[in-house]
Amino acid sequence: MSLAFLHAHDCSEAHADAVWGVSWTKNDTVVSISADGSIKQWVSASGESYLPPDQPEYTTPSPHTLGLVSLSVSADGQRALYNSLEGLTCLWNLETGKLEGTFESYMAQGEELEPSPHWTVSLSPSGTTYASAGGAGILEIHSAAPESFGRRLSSVFSGRNKFGMCCSYSPDSKRIALSSEIGQVSLLDVESNTFTTTYSSHAMSVRSVAWSSDGNLLLSASEDKRLSLYDVRVSSAKGGGAVASFSGHSSWVLSVDISSDGRLGLSGSADKSIKVWDIAARAAVTTVQDTGEVWSVSWRPRAPSAGSAGAFVSGGEDGVVKWWRGAGTGG
Amino acid sequence: MHEAIIEDVPITKRDIYYRDVNLYRAQQTVDNLVDDVAATLNLERSDLNVRATSKGTFCGSVLSIHLSTGEITQGTNSEPALIPVGEDVETFSVDDDLAWVLVVEKDAVFQTLCHLNVCNDPSLPGKGLLITGKGYPDMATRHLVKTLSDCLPSTIPIIALVDGDPYGLDIMSVYKFGSSRMRHENQKLAAGRIEWMGILSSELTGLGIDKDALIPITDHDQKKALSMLHRPTNIMPDSWKKELMHMLHNRRKAEIEILYDKPEPVLQSDSTRSLSHSQLKHFVFVAQALDG
Fold this sequence. Notes:
The complex is a heterodimer. Chain A is an all-beta fold. Chain A is built from no helices and 27 strands. Chain A has one domain (5-326): YVTN repeat-like/Quinoprotein amine dehydrogenase (Methylamine Dehydrogenase, Chain H), CATH 2.130.10.10. In chain B, helix 5 links the parallel strand 8 and strand 9. Chain A: Keywords: Repeat, WD repeat.
């Protein structure tokens, strides 16, 4: 099978610097974060800035002084959690436009001697907590409730004192995946709050991971130019657990997503291209050329209508958020 | 220092250190103490009769330095010459046909360019002056660069080539804005006209450099970069901030040597003074290809 994806449109006004994160929300808007320090929301159908009806004072948060590196939008599309280069973490209500919480993770908290600044953050499906990781390979869970935003609830060492590049709650809330700069992907079991599994399919940084909607599959994107697919129900023997490997990119894979029906993988790469993968067939079905490194990709959450391949959004080095739609299926 | 003033015998910071190595333990301690005393008394270090020592070198027949002793340090186009300490210098004398000034961070790069006769190369838009401070520049080097910045016509570009890492950019910052430790002497030493030519992280992909050829940043680099990102805008321009952030996000840095072994360069067209910049870059690439 081969699919074609066409460039549908761009955001109405580009970010002033690279887009480092995008997320297509349940409400059919797209949230984007940029190296220019700003977070924006766009209407998917048109690419225009999102302005809710009856709320003329709705604004996006003022840009940070430093770039934003991590974005996690709640399952219901109500809130966006995002984090800056130095570890200033904020929770923005997408409906009201209000900032509901800020947390300076680069400041030592309470009795701590050393702060542990966040790099990557992920909102839990319930929206009550968020996970974070940073330089020391520790996965932390914090309150996401506005009245106690940022308060650390737990802290678990992954076993390796290495930079945590990406953490992500599974959609069923059972696990949190943490990927490291040296390639490991570890799974924390939320209930027991312990790491139960570590995959070693990559030896180079894993910059992004994505869950399938049923929480059974995990896809990783690595600087080794490959994606790995893990079935988390299979207990991992040493270094095992990866059920497939996807090659084809000629440079670092920077970002990854899985479609809501679990059939298609999506990857953005430093080779300036985006690839769509047929997961069952273990093969790329299309490659889309962009003009610069593609830092972030996100599938439209709504399942595509029959006969259509769906749609996705991408963000990259040129600061432009781009929408792509499937041109119908091939043979 | 008191002795040096009373007896009118100048000493260097190195001399002070060696008077009592056990007490001071490190040269840096003496350096800091001397600077602190000078700042407290609102004097220059030279007023305390503590002489600078020089480590910076230059190359280029266009420059001759007249010392207060009457001697002349004459630059040549293929051999480095030591930059004399500021207090010994009477005047700098520069030939009319000087067309460009290039300040490089590292001695190794300076040596390569010097021995390749860059200063007098026909493919470049005229005669040049090459300078290196061998890392963080001392006051003598900064004094020379500052003087050139102030006195040369603005048609003559003064550009810096440093490693694409936080320390390289900090060295660039010392030349252009002054050293954070010596704010009280900054008026004398900030070379406002110096421009950052590279290496810029943002141009590495365009230069055909494989991301895997870049060096991972260290914890030190990360801390240094984050601390630099918090500097006020007047000493941390937006374009520099952008480069530092991209460096942190990519988690990679680049040394000038990464340009070695590159075949043909891809010339950048976005610089306003792009003619001499791109020609110089071209030359640097070609020179390193020949050498490496």
